[in-house]
Here is the input.
Amino acid sequence: MSSNRRHNYKNLKIWLLGIEIANDVSDILDDFPKHERYDLSSQISRCSVSMPSNIAEGSSRTNKSFSHFLDISLGSSFELITQLIVAKHRKYITQITFQKLEIKIEELQRMTMSFQNGLN
Here is the structure.
């Protein structure tokens, strides 16, 4: 694949799954305690939005640069799982909710790493 080729992020499965996760996260944040609005809730929201946002931003770049944006997206996904573990520990989300999100996030991670390997 040419390193000058640009990708249409709206057609990428990793971006679509990232959007789905961001929307799922937004739905669960409605039930978080109000005192977490500017702390954990805000961090979780930013991480979840960062994943597809970095995929979209990187898609307009060269493959080398795109790979860097995918690294940032992956970092946000690992950060998001960590924050969801904290939320589960604080009983803001159930084990079942956590597991459903974790499965999707881990799938996004696998798909992103595979896509990234294809760029290099």
About this structure: The domain at 9-119 is CATH 1.20.1440.60 (de novo design (two linked rop proteins)). The mean pLDDT is 94. The chain has one domain: 9-119. The chain has four helices and no strands.
